[in-house]
Amino acid sequence: MTDFVPAARLAGGVARTSELTSTPSERRALERTAARGHLVRLRRGVYGVPDLDPDIATAARVGGRVAGVSGLRHHGLWVPPGVGSMLHVEVADEVEGRPEAGEQTAVCVHWVESGTRPRFGVAPLRETLARASNQLPLEFAVAVLDSALRSTPLTPVELQLESVTWRPSARTAAELADERSESGTESVLRVLLHEAGIHATPQAPLPLGGGQRADLLVGDRLLIECDSEAHHAEPASRRADLRRDESLVALGYIVLRIDYRHVFDDPEGVVATVAAIVARGDHLSRRPGR
After folding, report:
1. Coil, helix or strand for 256?
2. Helices (H), the chain
3. Alpha-carbon span 177 to 122, nearest angstrom
4. pLDDT in tens, the chain (290 residues)
5. Under DSSP, is residue 106 helix (H, G, I), strand (E, B) or coil?
6. I want to staple 74 with a disulfide (CB 3.0 to 4.6 A). Which of 32, 122, 206, 284 is the partner?
7. Distances (CA, A) of 191 to 69, 157, 177, 229
8. Cα distance between residue 177 and residue 284, in whole Å
C-alpha cells in the first residue's frame, strides 16, 4: 500500500506498525513495502522513511527520540564545539526490547517516565534546552540559550518562567542569557569575562551612524570584536573591518579583535588579555585617580 509512506511522513518520518496498520493484511502489505525499500525497518514494530535524518533514525532504533545537546542542530540552535560524538536519546521506561542502534553508534540513553510525550523524532525546544543546559559548561549553555532567544519565538520572560523547574546550573545559565547576543563566540566570551568579574555589554551601539554596533563593550572604551572564520575570510570584509577599527581608534576607543579559534583554543589567554586592560583602567575614558 503506497499510503504507508505518506502516513509515516505525517508522523514525523517514524511510525509504529500500530499507527500504520489495523489488520493482518495491512501488516503484510507494510512488510512488502519495507522489502521494496520504500520504508526502513528501524526496530521491531517501528518503520521510518528512507531519507530519515540519521540521528532520528538511530534514536528510533534505540527506542526513543533525539534529546539534549543532540537536539540543538535540529532546532537551528548554536552547537558548541565537540558536540556530536555522542548521540543523546530519551527512551521511555515502558520501551521493551534491547536497543538496536548497532555497535558502531555511540549512544547515551536517558530513561524518562512514560507519558503522553512522542516517543520518536526530536524532543521539543524547551525540553531540549532544559537538558542541554544541564549537560554543558556554563558558557556553552548560555550561548545555546542566547541562540534560542535570538532565533526562535522563545522570549526572555518565557525562558525565566520555564527555567524555574530546571536544575541549579541550568537556571544560572538562563539568568545569564541575553537576547542581544548575535553569535555563539560572543556569548561564550561574555560569560568567561563575567566569571572573571568583568562585565561586557553585548551589541553596544557605536557613534559611527548606520546603526553599527560592537560585539562586546567593556567599560565605555574597550570594544571587543569576535570574528568568525567564515565571515571574515573575504579580503573585502577584512578591509572594511580595519577601516572601521581605524575610525573607532581615532575616536578614543581600544579595539580588540579576537577570532573563533582564539576563544575556544585559549580562553584563559583571551580573558587574561582583557583583564590586563581592565586592571590598568584603560577600558574607561576617565581612569580612576587621573
Report:
1. strand
2. 4-10, 17-20, 24-35, 54-62, 125-135, 138-151, 156-162, 168-176, 184-195, 235-250, 260-265, 267-280
3. 23
4. 458 999 999 999 999 999 999 999 999 999 999 999 999 999 999 999 999 999 999 999 999 999 999 999 999 999 999 887 899 999 987 665 555 555 446 899 988 876 656 689 999 999 999 999 999 999 999 999 999 999 999 999 999 999 999 999 999 999 999 999 999 999 999 999 999 999 999 999 998 888 899 999 999 999 999 987 665 567 777 788 888 989 999 999 999 999 999 999 999 999 999 999 999 999 998 755 54
5. coil
6. 122
7. 19, 20, 9, 21
8. 25
Q: Please state the CATH superfamily assignment of the domain spanning residues 184-280 in this structure.
A: VSR Endonuclease (3.40.960.10)
CB atoms within 10 A of CB 91: 20
Output the CA–CA distances (angstroms, integers) from residue 152 to 33, 72, 164, in the order listed: 38, 12, 20
Query: Whole-prediction pTM value?
Result: 0.88
Domain with CATH 3.40.960.10 in the chain: 184-280
Q: Which grid coordinates are listed for 209? A: 551612524
Burial code (b: 16+ CB inside 10 Å, e: under 16) for 146-180 equals bbbbbeeebeeeebeebbeebeeebbebbebbbbe
